[in-house]
Design a protein that fits this description.
heterodimer, A: 807 residues, alpha/beta, 21% strand, B: 105 residues, mainly beta, four-stranded antiparallel sheet, 10 strands, 0% helix, 41% strand
């Protein structure tokens, strides 16, 4: 088949990212031509401010060098403007007169600085701040001249002013707003910024605009303000906003408002022409930050790559200023006002100001100055729309527990030394992460994860990685979208997939993937296990468990070890065993030359170093139930001795633990589930760090949920106090069934609780008796036909997957 | 070097989207994979990362994810998928009349 011709006008960050996304989907689909009017490859425009400030070099900000174009078979026409699009003939005409035919055209022409229409705007020495050329002009001017005026006290204006100041110029910022960054900061924070900028040596003229630019011999000499005052200037940088470059589209007759109008698929009013980046209007919005552009690129790549299943629905942006030594952050509706609650912490002497804006128990805006270490966390809460009622009291003081994975106490990513370990699982230091971000041009947490493996295992350092990313790349940081697709194979969220499985009565993996338009033929290691769990938990008895959708441990019903042998853990109900059982375990350990017998944290015995082919035999010889010590499912019920022996015991905790473990045995779940029952408030079974922890008191049982002793210790929350064992069973079962039905795969109970809120769980499990009993009944039904995993496979010793093929 | 083809097993001995391991003489253990579309591939049964047995991995598309640390290996080339680096040896394998044949080298 002949390749389609894909032409891109605009060799910038948005366009090239879109091409990269297309290549990712299908590298062979198109013959690609890129037209750019600048003479170099794609570079990181956002880093021009640090280049101007002398903190980075031009060669460091190149994202795609010329080799990249060549090695991907892309024709790059550089230093050449496109002058016309002929839609009828489907070709682009260049300034040289050459015509380039297309089947699909992408317009990514970006924006240009808004030049104030005042007298003198055409004088020499009056420039915008947009590209390498502008940056070079400023660097040259700083070497030759003394006085600079920056018109516009927004992000770009302040960065330009700061850079010019560092290069030795006297800089005055003229800003129409009452305070600096008046679109990104509220007045209080704006005032602090004003002070900080003045300390950096900038002169500020606020609430004033420029009236005319004065010149001599064609070169600018001063700026006249509306007050009549004249400020001396050899260089004037206009940073009063940007205008989408939509002229090419307009001349071609495309629908253009402020920018080129695109729909949620980034298609223009011509079906062969797409547009993205700063040159477009999407749902009435034009963006000037990089995060939305990258989101658009992803959707467009998906569209042109032939998948066509994603939609771009707009982006909530956040702000960060790239001026060394000044930390500010804002996002959302940070102005607040009537109908909003505002939490404010203000310490002007220390230069710290934090304002959080709440509405109906949701965080809707944040404005931080001086201490932005929690910006990423607030931004995450904002995007997730998480109920913050439980965090409210401490919200303003930030996420102090951040960085648990080996960086205890260090919550300021910026202040971490380079050799600080960020990811304890994979031994990744901050220095490695920063280096990868800079050298490989990474913008997302996912990218960092892929390239460094930081956060790729347990994920507990993700928040810290996000902060490092933010402090390294500034506002080019690309936050994860609010709506998180299950994995790269689909655009659907976990919740949507679950709903579809339930509502459309889907019972096989392939039906589910087909019904939901999966973009891969058989999923990936992330979605297949999740789908399998959703199917078997939604349709017990009907959906068939697919061993090929299980990861190794759940397929082998044992824990794989580093040498590819396995650990075998039989059930030991409530941690109680007998001499007979111990003798049997000892005999089996001898017979199969088990390398180690280890008491586990869950009060049972692990036989380690078992060969794969011995597994079915060892199960048969043990003749004990499978402990599912490997499973996303019920692990153990840890117990203390209880009143049968203990002089403090108030109830039979051991008996309660055994009864619970037997009732919930063979239960699969979104993640592992651990129980504990203690016989008195001394809590020897450590019930406070279990998914369900039960503590006996004289008058009954207290139930706690959502505890976790793992990566990050979480203390369980009190749910209810109950009188009888039957009640304990019913409430525990109902909570766990709610978790089974509604939690996302790999979401522990604590995270499920955080997501849906304790109020919701109480409403389901405590307040509505019918609902509770129905949940408990559904769990019992699901467990009724679930076989013991070992017993079911004992006869399979000769078959896959337990044995190698015979020679 | 001459290749000597040897019958290994029936295609149906390998689960779809799965793999089996085989030890041939003194050769390093080999994993034979079967994809959804019944294509078969053979690689040394050893992940270039930390030596995990790829035959226990999850097979999707024409890729296997190592059971140890989720390292992804291209079944066609034995090459680790970017940004990971590393390679495991590939072996010629084919299906003839429902039987899997492997070239011994």
């Amino acid at each position: 088949m002949q390749k389609q011709r894909l032409v891109l006008i605009g060799n910038g960050m948005a366009g090239i990212r879109a091409i990269e996304e297309v290549l990712k989907h299908d590298a062979a689909r198109y013959e690609i031509t890129v037209i750019g009017d600048e003479p170099w490859g794609n570079y990181n425009r956002i880093q021009l401010s640090p280049v101007l400030a002398g903190e980075q070099k031009l060669k460091d900000i190149i994202l795609n060098d010329l080799d990249w174009y060549a090695s991907n078979g892309i024709r790059l026409i550089k230093g050449m403007a496109a002058t016309q699009i002929d839609r009828a003939g489907q070709y682009v005409i260049l300034a040289s007169g050459e015509a380039i035919s297309y089947d699909k055209l992408i317009i990514a022409t970006g924006s240009r600085p808004f030049m104030l229409p005042i007298p003198g705007a055409d004088l020499d020495g009056v420039i915008g701040f947009r590209d390498i050329k502008d940056t070079e002009k400023m660097v040259v001017a700083a070497a030759l001249y003394r006085h600079a005026v920056v018109i516009g006290g927004g992000l770009l204006g302040l960065e330009a002013a700061h850079g010019l100041k560092l290069r030795g110029m006297e800089v005055t910022v003229v800003h129409l707003g009452e305070w600096l960054l008046n679109r990104q900061l509220d007045q209080s924070a704006g005032r602090l910024l004003e002070k900080a900028m003045q300390q950096h040596g900038l002169k500020l003229k606020l609430g004033i605009s420029a009236d005319a630019l004065l010149g001599d011999n064609g070169r600018v000499t001063g700026v006249r303000l509306t007050t009549g005052e004249v400020v001396e200037a050899d260089l004037v940088v206009m940073a009063a906003g940007i205008v989408p470059n939509a002229a090419l589209g307009q001349a071609a007759g495309l629908n253009v408002e402020q920018g080129i109008v695109v729909d949620d698929c980034l298609q223009t009013s011509d079906e062969h022409i797409y547009a993205l980046g700063e040159c477009v209007s999407h749902r009435g919005m034009s963006y000037g930050l990089v995060a939305p552009l990258f989101e658009m690129a992803k959707v467009l790549g998906n569209q042109l790559g032939g998948c066509g299943k994603q939609r771009y629905t707009g982006t909530m942006t956040s702000t960060k200023l790239k001026v060394t030594g000044i930390d500010l952050f804002s996002a959302g509706e940070f102005f607040g006002g009537e109908g909003y609650d505002e939490l404010v912490l203000s310490d002007p002497a220390a230069g710290i100001y934090k304002k959080l804006v709440l509405k109906d128990n949701l965080l809707v805006g944040a404005c931080l100055f001086g201490d932005t270490s929690d910006g990423a966390w607030y931004y995450q809460l904002l995007r997730q729309g998480r109920n913050i009622a439980d965090l409210r009291a401490g919200l303003l003081f930030g996420q102090q527990d951040l960085g648990d994975a080996g960086t205890s106490g260090a919550s300021r990513a910026g202040g971490l030394p380079d050799d600080a370990e960020v990811c304890g699982c994979n031994g990744v230091t901050k220095g490695v992460i920063v280096k990868a971000i800079k050298e490989k041009g990474l913008f997302t947490v996912d990218d960092v994860k892929k390239h460094t493996r930081a956060g790729a295992s347990c994920g507990s350092c993700t928040g810290l990685v996000e902060q490092i990313l933010m402090s390294t790349v500034g506002s080019s940081f690309q936050a994860a979208p609010k709506r998180k697709a299950m994995c790269a194979c689909t655009e659907h969220t976990h919740e949507e997939v679950r709903a579809a499985i339930r509502d459309q009565h889907l019972i096989t993996l392939s039906d589910t993937m087909r019904a939901l338009h999966w973009s891969t033929p058989d999923g990936c290691p992330s979605c297949r296990p999740a789908l399998n769990y959703y199917l078997i938990s939604t349709w017990p008895g009907e959906a068939k468990d697919d061993p090929q959708a299980r990861l190794v441990n759940e397929r082998m019903h044992a824990n794989i070890q580093k040498d590819s042998t396995f650990g075998v853990i039989p059930r030991m109900w409530g941690g109680v065993t007998t001499p007979d059982e111990l003798r049997k375990i000892a005999d089996v350990a001898d017979k199969y030359a088990v390398k180690m017998v280890k008491v586990t944290g869950g009060q049972r015995l692990d036989l380690l170093g078992v060969k794969k082919e011995d597994l079915p035999k060892i199960w048969q010889d043990l003749d004990m139930p499978c402990g599912m010590g490997y499973a996303k499912g019920l692990r153990t019920a840890k117990t203390c001795v209880g009143k049968q022996f203990c002089r403090f015991g108030t109830q039979d905790s051991t008996g309660m633990g055994i009864a619970l473990e037997k009732a919930l045995d063979r239960m699969w779940a979104p993640h592992k589930v651990k129980l504990a029952v203690s016989g008195c408030p001394r809590n020897c079974a450590e019930a406070g760090i279990k998914d369900v922890g039960i503590i006996a008191v004289d008058s009954g049982w207290e139930i706690y949920i959502g505890g976790n002793g793992g990566i990050k210790t979480e203390v369980a929350e009190f749910l209810i106090k109950l009188k009888t064992e039957d009640e304990v069973m019913e409430y525990t079962g109902a909570f766990l069934q709610l978790y089974r039905e509604e939690a996302n795969y790999l979401e522990r109970t604590v995270h499920f609780m955080r997501r849906v809120g304790m109020d919701y769980i109480k409403a389901q499990v405590l307040e509505d008796a019918t609902r509770r009993q129905a949940l408990w009944a559904r769990l019992q039904l699901a467990l009724a036909d679930e076989p013991d995993p070992w017993q079911a496979r004992i006869g399979e010793s000769a078959a896959a997957p337990f044995a190698d093929l015979p020679q | 070097m001459t290749q000597q083809w040897q019958r290994i097993c029936a295609l149906t001995d390998i689960p779809t989207q799965g793999a089996r391991a085989v030890q041939l003489g003194d050769m390093a253990p080999i994993a034979i994979f079967r994809t959804t579309g019944d294509r078969v591939f053979a690689l040394d049964n050893r992940c270039p990362h930390k030596g995990g047995e790829l035959s226990h991995g999850l097979v999707y598309g024409e890729t296997v994810a190592c059971p140890m640390h989720n390292f992804k290996i291209d079944l066609k080339t034995g090459q680790a998928l970017a940004p990971e680096q590393g390679q495991t040896a590939c072996h010629s394998v084919e299906v003839r009349d429902g039987e899997v044949w492997l070239a011994r080298s």
